[in-house]
Amino acid sequence: MAHGYLLASFLSPITNQRSDHYGGSLANRLRFPLELFRAVRTVWPQHKPMSVRVSATDWVAGGTTGADSVLIARAFKEAGCDVFDVSTGQTDPSSKPVYGRMFQASFSEQIRLEVDIATMAVGAVTSADQVNTLLISGRADLVALARPHLADPYFTLHAAAQLGYEGVTWPSQYLSGAQQLHALHRRARDDAARKSD
Ligand SMILES: Cc1cc2nc3c(=O)[nH]c(=O)nc-3n(C[C@H](O)[C@H](O)[C@H](O)COP(=O)(O)O)c2cc1C
């Protein structure tokens, strides 16, 4: 439901130019995405979660805003959505995104706090420390990373080693590499602790 895909094109007042009861007011723009969500919810097992990704702002004057996204998230929560995955933009070429570190997290935070629904933050999150900061400060319940995994397919394994977390599974052929990396990080953590004493 984000980034100009079919359902996003209904939600955004920029792309939804319809004059029937699927266009115009927010309630009308929500109608088709909600109909579809409810249809999926009825066949998807109740005990399994469903998430919705939105573009929380179009970054365009007259487009969807964070405040609109609060109303959108509330409607999906009432329809049985468990997790709101909060991206932004890519709905109209005239958009003027304000990029920066974790630049979409404020929308995740707003929706999480105002709607009381679990959120997933995404966008320019590049380190495990940033992930933990977002989680600990209550700005999101989940954090997803895309491009860092393209640059480093072992991002998760490396982050786990950096944090001294041994609960992730390495391919057994790589275990000697895992042991070495954990040892290097352990030494670095010990050195840093000694220096701060
Ligand atoms: C190669 C690639 C393909 C992507 N495809 C999609 C997609 O089909 N749908 C979508 O919602 N986001 C898509 N994204 C966006 C990512 O899910 C993510 O929101 C975005 O890259 C920002 O997070 P990042 O800074 O961690 O990369 C794609 C990203 C990349 C790099």
How are the SSEs placed, and which strands pair?
Elements: H1 6-11, H2 26-43, E1 51-55, H3 66-78, E2 83-87, H4 105-115, E3 118-122, H5 128-136, E4 142-144, H6 147-151, H7 155-163, H8 175-196
Parallel strand pairs: 1-2, 2-3, 3-4
The structure holds flavin mononucleotide (FMN).
Flavin mononucleotide (FMN) binds next to α6.
Architecture overview:
It is a single chain. The chain has eight helices and four strands, in the order ααβαβαβαβααα. With about 200 residues, it is an alpha/beta fold. The protein has two domains: about 5-150, Alpha-Beta Barrel (TIM Barrel), CATH 3.20.20; about 155-195, no CATH class. It has a four-stranded parallel beta sheet, covered by helices on one side. The mean pLDDT is about 95. Flavin mononucleotide binds near residues 2 and 53.
Supply database-style keywords.
single chain, 197 residues, alpha/beta, TIM Barrel, 2 domains, 4-stranded parallel beta sheet, elongated, binds flavin mononucleotide
Question: What is the name of the CATH architecture of the largest domain?
Answer: Alpha-Beta Barrel
Q: Strands across the major sheet, in which order?
A: 1-2-3-4
How much of the sequence is in beta strands? 5-15%
Q: What about the largest sheet?
A: 4 strands, parallel
Q: What separation lies between the terminal Cα atoms?
A: 51 Å
Radius of gyration (CA) equals 20 Å
- Which term fits the overall shape? elongated
CATH superfamily of the largest domain: Aldolase class I
Q: What small molecules does the structure contain?
A: flavin mononucleotide
| Quantity of strands, as a count | 4
N-to-C order of helices and strands:
HHEHEHEHEHHH
Could you list the spans in which at least 5 consecutive residues all have pLDDT below 50? none
The overall pLDDT, averaged over residues, is 97
CATH class of the largest domain: Alpha Beta
Report the CATH topology name of the largest domain. Answer: TIM Barrel
Helix tally equals 8
Helix-strand category:
alpha/beta
Number of separate domains: 2
Helix content: 40-55%
